[in-house]
């Protein structure tokens, strides 16, 4: 992640060390059915007959503070499902069911229902069942109106249909699927920089009549139906969900060791909000691509001969040919 994010209070070195320590601990709590190491987009678990479960968990981060400040609680649940289900589908798995955990300072039934309304809508968009959840009241430890969300998604995939780095070859085409905006990452930087200049009800001309709150609370796109349909037809080699860590941390997770990508900036439209954050934060281009999705929330690696079909099926206004796989590790953006 970039220097601008560090200035906003996110300790990236500590986060990286924590991941390493967690990976070491997880390696001591395994079963023989576990099929992948910690670090992929979803954990994989063999259940017999050539099938695997794929599981992912995530939250919405400090985007929740924008929802709390505005009282607009019915969309962050969509973000929660997107963060989990779109990690699961990066393996080629179909998300089957979802569980949510909601912690609140004080249970106000109408507020809880509004939050879970978004979770249910996200599940509908992703095509998975909202199987259950937990609401926990934390009096004395959280302000009455504060809340936090976590989600857990489980899917299934045939082992022969798994997407991943092993399928990728030099020369493969990289296709980006359009995001709906900031999605649910980088909000510590957004709040630190953008909200120091703008009130939530401001309407900067760059946003064409939308308020800052409208832009910041725009729900994540959910890519699961599109990616799943393309994967089932054998049109995707691997996929990367562009979340925390932006391009630089997520795209390499879809590539084999020693492979990299060359990305052509300008091959897709970038939302105006990214330019607002860029200026307000004094961020470099590297900072931005290390923190945000920059207009592309999912990246697909495909066979060159399938690229045009993938773009046509995903929607030519929503899918863009943005680069190619090359020998040599790293993400190079030109």
- Tell me the number of structural domains: 2
Count up the helices. Answer: 12
Shape: globular
Q: Major sheet: order of its strands?
A: 7-9-6-10-8-11
- Distance separating the two termini: 18 Å
Short overview:
Helices cover 32% and strands 25% of the residues. The chain is of the alpha+beta class and 334 residues long.
Q: How would you describe the overall organization of this protein?
A:
This protein has two domains: 131 residues, PurM-like, N-terminal domain (60s Ribosomal Protein L30, Chain: A); 169 residues, PurM-like C-terminal domain (Phosphoribosyl-aminoimidazole Synthetase, Chain A, domain 2, Alpha-Beta Complex), CATH 3.90.650.10. 32% of the residues lie in helices and 25% in strands. Strands 7-9-6-10-8-11 form a six-stranded mixed β-sheet. Strands 1-2-5-3-4 form a five-stranded mixed β-sheet. β3, α5 and β4 form a beta-alpha-beta unit. The model has no long low-confidence stretch (mean pLDDT 95).
Break the fold down into its secondary structure elements and pairings.
Blueprint lengths: L2 H5 L4 H15 L16 E6 L2 E9 L3 H8 L5 H13 L5 E11 L4 H18 L2 E9 L9 E12 L14 E6 L8 H7 L18 H5 L7 H9 L5 E4 L4 H5 L8 E5 L8 H10 L3 H5 L6 E7 L4 H8 L4 E9 L2 E4 L1
Parallel strand pairs: 3-4, 8-11
Antiparallel strand pairs: 1-2, 2-5, 3-5, 6-9, 6-10, 7-9, 8-10
């Amino acid at each position: 992640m970039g220097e601008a994010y560090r200035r906003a209070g996110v300790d990236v070195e500590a986060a990286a060390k924590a991941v390493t320590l967690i990976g070491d601990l997880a390696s001591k709590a395994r079963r023989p059915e576990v099929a992948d190491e910690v670090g992929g987009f979803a954990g994989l678990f063999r259940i017999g007959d050539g099938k695997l479960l794929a599981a992912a968990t995530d939250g919405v981060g400090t985007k929740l503070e924008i929802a709390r400040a505005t009282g607009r609680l019915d969309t962050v649940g969509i973000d929660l499902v997107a963060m989990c289900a779109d990690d699961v589908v990066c393996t080629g798995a179909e998300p089957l069911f979802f569980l949510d955990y909601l912690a609140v300072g004080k249970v106000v039934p109408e507020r809880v229902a509004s939050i879970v309304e978004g979770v249910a809508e996200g599940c509908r968009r992703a095509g998975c069942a909202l199987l259950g959840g937990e609401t926990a009241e934390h009096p004395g430890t959280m302000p009455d109106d504060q809340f936090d969300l976590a989600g857990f998604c489980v899917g299934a995939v045939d082992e022969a249909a798994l997407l991943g780095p092993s399928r990728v070859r030099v020369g493969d085409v990289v296709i980006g699927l359009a995001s709906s905006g900031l999605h649910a990452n980088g909000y510590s930087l957004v709040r630190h920089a953008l909200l120091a200049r703008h009130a939530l009800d401001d309407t900067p001309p760059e946003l064409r009549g939308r308020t800052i709150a409208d832009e910041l609370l725009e729900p994540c796109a959910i890519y699961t139906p599109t990616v799943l349909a393309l994967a089932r037809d054998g049109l995707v080699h691997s996929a990367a969900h562009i979340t925390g860590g932006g391009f630089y941390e997520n795209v390499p997770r879809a590539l084999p060791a020693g492979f990299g990508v060359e990305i052509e900036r300008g091959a897709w439209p970038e939302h105006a909000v990214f330019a607002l954050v860029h200026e307000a934060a004094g961020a470099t281009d590297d900072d931005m691509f290390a923190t945000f999705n920059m207009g592309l929330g999912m990246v697909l690696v495909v066979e060159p001969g399938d690229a045009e079909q993938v773009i046509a099926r995903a929607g030519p206004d929503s899918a863009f040919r943005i680069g190619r796989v090359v020998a040599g590790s790293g993400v190079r953006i030109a």
